[in-house]
Amino acid sequence: MYNKKTIEDISVAGKKVLVRCDFNVPLDGDNNITDETRINAALPTVQYLLNNGAAVILCSHLGRPKGEFNMKYSLAPVAKRLSEKLGFEVKLAADVIGESAKALAAEVKAGEAILLENVRFHAEEEKNVPEFAKELASLADIFVNDAFGTAHRAHASTEGVTHYLPSVAGYLIGKELDVMGKALTAPVRPFVAILGGAKVKDKIGVITNLLEKVDALVIGGGMSYTFAKAMGGEIGNSLLDEERIEFAKEIMATAAAKGVKLLLPVDNVIGDDFNNDCNQQIVKSGEIPAGWEGLDIGPETAKLFGDVIRTAKTVVWNGPMGVCEMPNFAKGTIEVAKALVESNSISIIGGGDSAAAIEQLGFGDKVTHISTGGGASLEFLEGKVLPGVAALEDK
């Protein structure tokens, strides 16, 4: 799955190229884009195709219109912003496979780009209906997938179209495969994985897969309390995934048997309520009194985790160490981020809250790679096959 052709492995000159981007950007009440990260991330691929003589047909989803035409989810704001960034008008088709899309796709010339309307205005998109995928593919000569965030879904615009067109990866997916693929198949050691977030059940596949590959596994965040409980500790009102207590015990036993260092919190910052201004104190892990809950890792834990992270040569991080959206309980996540940056390792941030934390701290340019797909990165780290990637041509 890691060795796929990219746009640089084929000739695009004089060809119409359908590019699946991830333009699922946040909009405010007046339909202004509030975060352009995803648009900026797509530009290198789009620019390469334009510079190399391709006529570009862009497509994406936005939000969850549930298969119905709804102007609230129109890609018009994206077309406007793309026009400003590319320096020419990116016309927006009024539909996806209808008369407007067909007319614009027929007219678009080398060095120009158009944008189709939201692919999820059709229920056939998420159902991956072959007829819909075939109609979409008929607009172009080549397909480029650059939407890693949806690569774990077999939709018409990510997997279906590959049955009708030569299909390769854009730069974004190419980088995900290169950096994350290398980390999972041939990591520079020591290889440390940091896992946080709320629920153990969301990370079962990731923990199981990474335990086969890493030298050290660091577990923080809400899911660490299930491990504390598995060791017989008291966790008060902290998050508990009761059904996964046995799994936590198995993980600890497996790590010991494999000689993998498993690091769990030794102290916690706890609060008497789930809000930023609640009373707080620091206690040893497994000694959380009734009526209190763990909201962050404590200072001793931050130091313990930091010391191991700083020695790493490859680090994968997915999930915060505490309730990092509350400033009073973000310290653990911040300390881990600092250690990661100081490690001089190949550092991979697996989307979501960890990516937001790194960006907020201004460390975005100090890490090797921030994954653009939350669910897709998780499934990638689990070792699952991503349909949108598997369908692309092998090198």
Mind sketching the topology for me?
Blueprint: E1 16-20, H1 37-51, E2 55-59, H2 76-86, E3 91-92, H3 99-107, E4 113-115, H4 123-127, H5 130-137, E5 142-145, E6 167-169, H6 171-185, E7 191-195, H7 200-211, E8 216-219, H8 224-230, E9 234-235, H9 245-258, E10 261-263, E11 267-271, E12 280-284, E13 287-288, E14 293-297, H10 299-310, E15 314-318, H11 331-342, E16 346-349, H12 352-360, E17 369-370, H13 374-381, H14 387-390
Parallel strand pairs: 1-2, 1-5, 2-4, 3-4, 5-6, 7-8, 7-15, 8-10, 9-13, 15-16, 16-17
Antiparallel strand pairs: 11-12, 11-14
Helix pairs in contact: 7-9, 8-9, 10-11
Can you characterise this structure?
With 395 residues, this protein is an alpha/beta fold. Helices cover 36% and strands 16% of the residues. The chain is built from 14 helices and 17 strands. The chain has helices at 37-51, 76-86, 99-107, 123-127, 130-137, 171-185, 200-211, 224-230, 245-258, 299-310, 331-342, 352-360, 374-381, 387-390, and strands spanning 16-20, 55-59, 91-92, 113-115, 142-145, 167-169, 191-195, 216-219, 234-235, 261-263, 267-271, 280-284, 287-288, 293-297, 314-318, 346-349, 369-370. The longest helix is centred in the first third of the chain and has 15 residues, at 37-51. It is elongated. The mean pLDDT is 94.
